[in-house]
Design a protein that fits this description.
heterodimer, A: alpha+beta, Aminopeptidase, 2 domains, 17 strands, 26% helix, 27% strand, B: Elongation Factor Tu (Ef-tu), domain 3, seven-stranded mixed β-sheet, six-stranded antiparallel β-sheet, 9 helices, 27% helix, 23% strand
Amino acid sequence: MSFDFRQTLEILTAANGVAGEETNAAAAACKLLSAYAPDARVDDFGNVVGTLPCEEADFPTLLLDAHIDEIGMIVNYITEDGFLKVSGCGGVDIRVLAAQRVTVYGNGGKNVLSGVMTSTPPHLGGDSTKALELDEIFIDIGMDGKAAKENVRLGDRALIETPLTTLAGEKLTGKALDDRSGVAVLLAVLDQLQERKTCYKIAVQFSAQEETGERGAGLGAYAVSPDYALAVDVSFALTAGEKPEKCGILGKGAMIGVSPALDRKMSDKLREVAAREGIPAQVEVMGGATGTNADAISGSKTGVRTALVSIPLKYMHTPVETISVADLENTAELIARFLCAAPVS
Amino acid sequence: MKLKQELETLCNLDGISGYEDAVRAYIISRIDGRAVYTTDNLGNLIVFKKGAKAPENKLLLSAHMDEVGLIATYHNADGTVKIAAVGGVDARVLAGRRVRIANTQTVGVIGLRAVHNLTKEEKNKAPKAEELCVDFGCETAKEAEELCPQGTFLAFDTAYTAFGNGKITAKALDDRCGCAILLSLIDSELEYDTWFTFVVQEEIGLRGAKTAAFGVEPEYCMVLETTTAADIPSAEDEKRVCALGAGPVISYMDRTTIYNKKLYELAFATAREEEIPAQTKTMIAGGNDAGAIHLSKTGVKTIALSVPCRYLHSPSCVIAYADLKNTKRLVKGLMNRICSL
């Protein structure tokens, strides 16, 4: 297998795509998708969509989904002194913001500006055991009020950008691995399907605005009207202080979702394929809805039978999200094998 | 070399307190052949440069080479590494950051439990430094120990960047700003013979300056530093302390020193005469090597000139370049006046 996850993720994570402003990330993903789906395009909502060429008219349609957006910040006020006040765009972890380097995509992305999140120095007293509220933090773009207002508009996005970096043991760290990892896995699956025969007509979407409430995925699913769907997202890898029953283990393979909101037979089939093929995988049991695009897709039109496969990821929604390349490879292998097995009845 | 380039080179080097080697080696490479130098037993670099004349008063200019950072203390079974802060580091600027083994490309991350799994209370609680660990990607304690043995120094992994209107962000601006100014003075022709010290271990208690001053025995000393500017929207009035763009900060008192009043006045007079913007601090906060130097032997008449700096001791300090240039101008004007007092 020659799919280069490092290189693919470098391209995908370098592009900015805060929820609702996914243009650059979508363009990068669309270009990569077009190698497999000649009809790849970005729809009106910002979802990247495409279908694999298929001559079998009576095959059922299966929609593969991963989300293209990432969490970030949105500018909602500019002070007289030129500091930007922001809100979270998606579930930002305020504990990591103080004194972070940020990039502001000013004037709708035309002006790419460096900035620093303010932090309150210790001499000001205050309670250092308390995380700073988003209310108390501003972006310092090093400009006075006039220059700031010329370079930034309300509604512009800002991002903490950490370049993709390799850690020990073939692990990758960076921003937006939630869910560019999922996008990369699906591209790897498509790559494998060039040499393997699937039992489905395959539609693909890299959907917009997952982080603000799984908004793009439902629209994409509506347009495709699939018989089945498989969403790929990231989920919690165990770190100190987390509950083991809520987490997978980094490096132990894909986390196969089992939940009342997911199609039981598809989940079982994924477990079966993993066991039969000897692909490392783990099970993630959720007591209700999954909090992923699987929820939106399964509820589309008269309902879509949907499975969820998650890539274990440490430090979710921080600029130092961390994944294992082995997990990406195993997740792609599992999904490709699943797609080559007969559909569930 | 241009002051800006010098600062960039200096900030991108790692020199955590007690491990200033890379910074010292660089500074030596810059001054070799231009001045005479020695290092003392703690690692301070002591430099003498001849000027056109012998001064009336022996003057020392001092800046510190070290920066705040982290040190590895323990290896957890899951392969993560426990850390302690070296110098005053607010744990809130560590979470969600990349760090590197000092002067290497080996990167680790300081992660947190996922925000999704926290209670409302936990979401608003800043992590404590002792709870934070560095994840280098190792899976066992042994693997981590091989990669990052106990006592390994870790630096913030942020690169020097110019941004905004004439602003600079980098780690270690405290006190590579001072080092950059000293280097540029050593490069230039001096009117008077002058002593310079590049000292170690300021951030853990002004330790290098103490022995350096003892060795040099100056009558007068000018400490070149950075100082907290809190000219940000969440601070008001006196709590802003000083402001970027308003020129060098001349201190009358901080937590370690009451500065020599004559020098304080002379510094402002010099600024006025040479039309250099200058300001003072509106809070008695912080401290610097002056605290150790002014009490050396029978005492040293000491003044501190500082570049105002936002987010001090964080991975992303911010200064205005104009302040750095104006601080250098003021230092130049003041040193000649002190030498001829």
